[in-house]
Amino acid sequence: MLGKLDILKEIKSYVIISLGTFLYCFSWVAFLIPHGVAGGGVTGIASIIYYATGFEISYTYLMVNVGLLIAGTMILGNAFGLKTIYAIFLASAMFRVLPEFAWITGFSDIPDTFINAILGGSISAVGISWIFNQGGSTGGTDIIALIVSKYREISLGKVFLYCDLLIVGSIYFLPDKGLQDVIYGYIQMVSFSYLLDVLITGSKQSVQILIFTSKYQEMADMVSTQLNRGVTALQSMGWHSKQEGKLLVVIARKQQLAEITQAIMEVDNRAFISVCSAMSVYGNGFETVKVRRKPHAEFKQIQEK
Fold first, then answer.
1. Residue numbers of the domain that contains 262
2. Staple partner for 20: which of 27, 37, 127, 146, CB 3.0–4.6 Å?
3. Burial (0-12, 13-18, 19+ Cβ within 10 Å), 196
């Protein structure tokens, strides 16, 4: 039985997915499709078919996603599948309905295709990030990206980039398209992939904080108990003063940095703090290593070579 808070949490999740789906479809209808820009994913495939034949994008989008949706549900779980089903059908409906609104199609009056490619890629990345953060997907290469990221330590943006290179490049073979259209498609794709990485991994970025203070014991207790962060004390010596002490090392999320530095100053306003970015942090409270171990026999063969 779901409690009241759980139900409200699920409702909030579906509301955010709906808003993200709207932004995603809006970016295509308002900026990309009117200017003949072919982005990546199933929507990119649907748009290329639309440019070549005039076949409705919403129908192609829905049909292509059915097979991928089944695979994604089997691998990633029922909860993911339900949210993805909702997003796919909602996106299909929006691709059909949004072109009927003049205030949306009015954005296509921007003449510069380059600007439209940037805007379309950026806005669609925002929408997709909202959907991903709620455990959903709009289908297509979204599902492929989430499956790959579940088993491999690779960013979602890179998976999109590899999958979409072929899709965008295929527009070159349409009769009324050329290299310029491929370039615009790649501009959209790169802006989408880059911003998606920033939005998805931004909340996971970590920092390493080095704290030099004479009040190291009080400082370590504060960080450990009040801020609930792990602390490592290393033996150190100030070369100028020749006094021995402890160097405190703290690993934390980037968004916690302001809170931690403020708390440090409250304990010792003369403390010296050094902060550097941590590319990847694995372990309790951070990321897990997603690597498949090779079978013993295969590993033995590699050693023998």
1. 205-278
2. 127
3. buried
Q: How far apart are CA 84 and CA 132, in angstroms?
A: 10
Is pLDDT above 50 for 188? yes
Tell me: do 179 and 215 sit in the same domain: no
Contacts of 122 (CB under 8 A, 6+ apart): 27, 191, 192, 195
Task: Give the amino acid at 291.
Answer: V
CATH of the domain at 221: 3.30.70.120
Residues 187 and 118: beta-carbon distance below 8 Å:
yes
Handedness of CA 77, 78, 80, 84 (dihedral sign): positive
Assess contact for 191 and 126: CB atoms under 8 A: no
Phi, psi of 208 (to 5 degrees): -110, 125
Q: What is the pTM of this model?
A: 0.69
Burial group, residue 234, by CB count within 10 angstroms (0-12, 13-18, 19+): exposed
Residue 254 sits in the same domain as residue 162: no
Domain assignment of residue 193, yes or no: yes
Q: Which run of H or E residues covers position 85?
A: helix 78-97
Say whether both 119 and 238 belong to one domain: no
Residues 68-99: tens digit of each pLDDT: 777 777 777 655 568 888 999 999 999 999 99
One domain, residues 188 and 250: no
Does a structural domain hold residue 172? yes
Interatomic CA distance for residues 202 and 14, integer angstroms: 22
% of the chain residues with pLDDT over 90: 29
